[in-house]
Automatic annotation (TrEMBL):
Annotated source species: Neurospora tetrasperma (strain FGSC 2508 / ATCC MYA-4615 / P0657)
Region listing for Disordered, in residue ranges: 46-70, 102-130
Protein's name in the database: Ribosome biogenesis protein ALB1
Domain of life: Eukaryota
Basic and acidic residues biased stretches: 120-130
């Protein structure tokens, strides 16, 4: 008696397609796991468009615009200044540290006036921060 294929079962092409789709799904999940472990990118950030070297398009870890970056740098500078004043550093020392870090805005005029106004007392306060 000849073997007859069951007409109610899936076709050979359908079985191959199902196996291929499952294989692709497993590869995607494996790649996502590697992104989380190696590159420390969370699932939420991946959903928002984050990739290795790219920040997400939205959410708390999205890239800041230039204006927001400038505002944040100003806020950080003010916070550093308050911290140093709390620790008891003098105004001159605070200005020197700000100048080294590039936080404070010093114009050419103010730099010239500082050189003229130096007294022997201020020369004693010089500190090396390196």
């Amino acid at each position: 008696m000849p073997s007859v294929k069951n007409p109610n079962g899936p076709s050979k092409n359908r079985l191959i397609a199902r196996a291929a789709s499952l294989r692709k799904q497993r590869q995607r999940e494996s790649a996502q796991g590697k992104l989380e472990k190696i590159h420390k990118i969370t699932k939420e950030d991946l959903a928002r468009g984050a990739r290795p070297g790219l920040l997400p398009n939205s959410g708390p870890r999205k890239a800041l615009g230039k204006k927001a970056q400038r505002k944040l740098e100003k806020k950080l500078g003010y916070a550093i200044r308050r911290k140093m004043e709390r620790e008891g550093l003098s105004k001159m020392e605070v200005e020197k540290v700000e100048e080294m870090m590039g936080i404070g805005k010093t114009s050419k005029k103010s730099a010239e006036t500082e050189e003229i106004e130096e007294t022997p007392a201020t020369k004693e306060v010089e500190m090396d921060f390196s």
